[in-house]
Design goal:
single chain, 214 residues, alpha+beta
Length: 214
């Protein structure tokens, strides 16, 4: 069992959930693409290498011998960092999963949270390989409180999270065999969570209580 996280920390809640989502989808035979991450790493490491090499040459040869090269290195460094920032904001756009299934279904998922609001937000886009237009994307936006799949002591509970996804996203429901995506099962999974309220300085995170209890 994974270590519990701080239930008052939105970044921890989001990051743990973000990490769980690709694990679930790859278990359903979606093949994840790491292209966006690879480009980001290439840009970042290239800028770091340029800075390191420039520093080493300046340290060894002195400013007078390297100032012309340093000038161009600084320009290259800022260009790479500008490209990295643009890539993160305009290409990745919060995407946590890009993948394809053997039948040709393409799936991309982006996540975000709003400050002081413990609600997980997803934007899902997918294609239907049987459609007349092969790249005709369908889009759906989903929201759910983190308390749906986190216990009061910060343990991530995979089953209600997976049931939430499969109940709302048709391509995941089909890949999951059409069983775990039923809303009635999702409701039972929520009721199994401990009855509690996670309080913090920000908005409280409520976990559904069994009927008859407060």
């Amino acid at each position: 069992m994974a270590s519990p996280i701080a239930v008052y920390s939105l970044p921890d809640l989001k990051n743990t959930t973000d990490d769980a989502l690709p694990n679930y989808l790859t278990s359903l035979d979606f093949r994840q693409s790491h292209f966006l991450t690879d480009v980001r790493l290439a840009l970042g490491y290239s800028a770091v290498i340029i800075a390191a090499v420039t520093f080493a040459f300046d340290y060894k040869l002195g400013w007078d011998e390297t100032k012309e090269y340093t000038y161009w290195a600084v320009i290259a460094y800022f260009l790479l960092n500008g490209a990295l920032t643009s890539w993160i904001w305009f290409a990745e756009k919060g995407k946590i999963f890009q993948g394809v299934k053997q039948n040709g279904t393409l799936l991309t998922i982006a996540s975000c949270v709003t400050k002081h609001n413990p609600i997980y937000q997803l934007v899902i886009r997918w294609t239907d390989p049987a459609a007349s237009e092969p790249f005709d994307w369908e889009t759906r936006e989903l929201t759910a409180p983190f308390a749906t799949w986190f216990s009061s002591d910060g343990q991530f509970i995979a089953k209600p999270f997976q049931q939430w996804l499969s109940s709302e996203i048709p391509v995941i429901a089909v890949a999951d065999g059409g069983g775990s995506h039923k809303r009635t099962e999702q409701g039972r999974a929520r009721s199994e969570l401990p009855s509690t309220m996670m309080q913090s300085k920000g908005p409280a995170i409520h976990v559904n209580s069994p009927k008859g209890k407060k």
